[in-house]
Amino acid sequence: MRPILYLATQNKHKVEEISALLKDHFTVRDLSTLAITEEIPETGATLEENSLQKARYIAEKFHVSCLADDSGLEVEALAGAPGVYSARYAGEPKNDQANLELLVKNLVGIAHRRARFVTVLTYFHAGVYHSFEGEIQGEIVEAPRGNQGFGYDPIFQPENEDRTFAEMTLAEKNQIAHRARALEKFKKFLDEN
Ligand code: IMP
Question: Which domains does the chain have, with CATH numbers?
């Protein structure tokens, strides 16, 4: 039987993406089977800190093996913004549609549209934490396209692609995306250890 791994996220899209990629290694569980109603704290100044904070919160509260993800979209013309503040770019309460619209607005008239998505995963197991990073380069398109995925997917077009993430299936996104790349490193670590 495969070991159980809890995903320290309340984002059902992340659960879907990560579960699809880890199903051969783990029985993946989301947080619905744990007694958690509050939002997992996320107060760090970097993706690494937030990822570790989320993993530690679930691991210490429930004494389980878990994997946390913190991701951000860094836009070159905006000096790396929204970055670690991607979830709350348009303010509280966090709202994916408002974030996306604000980013499109802030790039109106700007020709340089390069951006990258970054994910930091933190795995907690047997008292030890391990981190894995993945990234994908691309650009921010001028108007949203597609209705798959979540968050900034409709305005992010990976390099060497003519579709945004939101115009791809989950399987297509999972072949190239930041989270999938971090998960590849995690799986390599598992295979080697
Ligand atoms: P967090 O990692 O849950 O804090 O997410 C940061 C922000 O980036 C949220 O607004 C997410 O919706 C967004 N985000 C994270 N991963 C992705 C992705 O794969 N595609 C699009 N948006 C994402």
Answer: 4-192 (3.90.950.10)
